[in-house]
Amino acid sequence: MPEADADLHGQVTKVIELMRPSIQSDGGDIELVSVSEDGHVQIRFHGACVGCPSSSMTLQMGIEQNLKTYVPGFKSVETVDEQGNSTAN
């Protein structure tokens, strides 16, 4: 993994880890699946977040906003299922 990619992945990981306790307090969890070299992030929700109507709000207003703010080079975030398929509606 080139150094710039590793740095981007590390920055995304830090943001996800800072948000994890809040998500876990609601009975869910979040997993960082991948970070592409061009700034596209894939995550997977677990627990109470799966199927929760508020998970799209958590994704857009929480995760995406924090990644935009704190991770230079971030482009987008999407949720994926266990098979790696997008769960966007």
Structural features, described:
It is a single chain. The chain has one domain: 2-Layer Sandwich (GMP Synthetase, Chain A, domain 3). It starts with a helix and ends in a 10-residue tail after the last strand. The protein has a 3-stranded mixed sheet, with helices on one face. It has 89 residues and is an alpha+beta fold. Helices cover 44% and strands 22% of the residues. It contains 2 helices and 3 strands; from the N terminus they run H-E-E-H-E. The longest helix has 23 residues.
What does this entry show, briefly?
The chain is an alpha+beta fold and 89 residues long. It contains 2 helices and 3 strands; from the N terminus they run H-E-E-H-E.
Q: How are the SSEs ordered, and which strands pair?
A:
Blueprint: H1 3-25, E1 28-35, E2 40-47, H2 55-70, E3 76-79
Overall number of domains = 1
Label the overall shape: globular
With helices defined by DSSP (H or I, 4 residues minimum), what is the helix count? 2
**Topology order in helix (H) and strand (E) letters:** HEEHE
The residue ranges in which pLDDT falls below 50 over 5 or more consecutive positions are none
What features would you highlight for this structure?
three-stranded mixed beta sheet; single chain; alpha+beta; 89 residues; 2 helices; GMP Synthetase, Chain A, domain 3
